[in-house]
Automatic annotation (TrEMBL), chains A, B:
Stated name of the protein: GntR family transcriptional regulator
GO MF, one annotated term: DNA binding
InterPro entries (alphabetical): GntR_C (IPR011711), TF_FadR/GntR_C (IPR008920), Tscrpt_reg_HTH_GntR (IPR000524), WH-like_DNA-bd_sf (IPR036388), WH_DNA-bd_sf (IPR036390)
Residue stretches making up the HTH gntR-type domain: 25-92
Region (Disordered): 1-25
Pfam families linked to this entry: FCD, GntR
Assigned keywords, A-Z: DNA-binding, Transcription, Transcription regulation
Gene3D superfamilies: GntR ligand-binding domain-like (1.20.120.530), Winged helix-like DNA-binding domain superfamily/Winged helix DNA-binding domain (1.10.10.10)
Keyword DNA-binding recorded: yes
Keyword Transcription found: yes
TM ranges: none
Entry-linked CDD domains: WHTH_GntR
Length: 245, 245
DNA sequence: ATCAGTTATTTTGCATTCATTTTTTGTCCT
DNA sequence: AGGACAAAAAATGAATGCAAAATAACTGAT
């Protein structure tokens, strides 16, 4: 067999009890949730083949609901379906990444704008808390903690926009670049770290003043800078690694 | 039979020759395209049931590819699938519409911002042409022509953003509110018409100057105003109709 | 040994079939 | 008549089966 899925010999989650606390009546829905996570979490290498047969065994289901789920994932942009040649995990070109980051920037920019119309003082306080927490991680050079706090801040802004449609779209795009986002989060680029901290302070400032268009600009620029950092990181992947093996 | 699909007795498009000039290798892909158009064009009343069986006969296919297409359309937000109770054309609440308009506003706002970075003088000239054309329709009270020119202007801005991901997302959301958008395009509200013309002039002005954040603001506000007009139109549907039958 | 051509195996796409669930129809009772 | 219950019909969800396409394996020639 030439599949690219690491065969652990066990289903992704226990076959009977469903994995998380989510409930899904239909097998198709359940499969969709599990498969989406499985792909988003990077269990299959980019561009790797995804043989239906093997996934069926993995999930303990027949091909019908699996294929339905694959079609949906393809529509979401996570995988691509080549006619008669099966599904592959979508490989994102540099251009794809640039586009995705820009769309994310647009959505967050919008979220900020809308948030200014509806956000409560309590919500702002909560975001400030997250900001301080993030600052702590920054001081301790805790990349992972920093990343998580950062994510939660951005999610809080999206939540404050009070727009479920936006939230869903945001989650969808975030899923597509999740792997890259994490790994490319200016690993060891301390300069960019400091810069990002300042940008976040500007975000908070604009948010407190409910300055919608200003916040919109700041958020867009913030994500634009993140995009630049991410692309750079991918172009010159490891600045501390030896030049040759 | 209690379906809500008008039964014309003929397939949506001739079974053998495919409807448009689009080509799709798989039956599933073909079905998806045809069904999406069929729904977007409003052939099924809102909230109407979509019996698989009937659609299969209509399209001359078996249930498997049809069901795959339905799952995708559900993921796109055009229809909803109730467990064990089939597919319904998604009924948009007023809140849903508000959210959709806002997201569209965000995407167009982003498109304008990005367009400022890459748009050519020729493209701007083309948009100006469309603007004059639209002005002509405005003077002649030609709603349909006005609407189409308007659409093309917005599409041109999105195209000038040079972002396929954005373009796809935009098309998706546009599809969801297509019906409402058209019917609600301030029918007979001359005041709003004039206002929209002025806003479009401001758009062109900012575009010529490549004033990204300014254009972003203008486009957002423009769409916001459209949203208000659309919602109003739905709330008080016909201002010239008699109050009682 | 390498490569073209051919055959065998696997994989995909779609149709069909089977088991449940829902909806409708029919019947009986008040 | 009207409503509650039960049986029949239809629709959905998922598994299986089958034909076509693609991939892999094999053969033989250079």
């Amino acid at each position: 067999m030439k599949s690219t899925i690491p065969d652990t010999g066990v289903p992704i989650t226990p076959p009977t009890g469903n994995g998380g606390d989510r409930q899904e009546a239909s097998l198709h829905g359940e499969t969709l949730l599990r498969l989406r996570d499985y792909v988003v979490e990077g269990n299959i290498p980019e561009g790797g083949r995804v043989p239906e047969r093997q996934l069926c065994e993995m999930l303990g289901i027949s091909r019908t609901p699996l294929r339905e789920a694959l079609k949906v994932l393809a529509a979401e942009g996570l995988i691509e379906l080549l006619p008669n040649r099966g599904a592959r995990v979508r490989q994102l070109s540099q251009r794809d990444l640039e586009e995705l980051f820009d769309v994310m920037a647009g959505l967050e920019s919008l979220a900020g704008r809308l948030a200014c119309e509806a956000i409560t003082d309590a919500e702002i306080t909560a975001i400030e808390q997250l900001h301080y927490e993030m600052y702590g991680h920054y001081l301790h050079r805790d990349m992972h903690g920093y990343f998580q706090a950062n994510q939660r801040i951005h999610e809080s802004i999206v939540a404050a926009a009070r727009n479920e449609t936006l939230k869903t779209a945001y989650a969808n795009f975030a899923g597509r670049i999740r792997r890259v986002r994490y790994s490319a989060n200016f690993a060891r680029k301390r300069q960019r770290w400091a810069e990002a901290m300042r940008e976040h302070e500007a975000v908070l400032d604009a948010l407190r003043r409910r300055a919608a268009s200003e916040l919109s600009d700041i958020l867009f620029q913030h994500l634009r800078n993140k995009r630049t950092a991410a692309i750079e990181h991918l172009t010159e992947p490891r600045e501390d690694a030896p030049a040759s093996p």
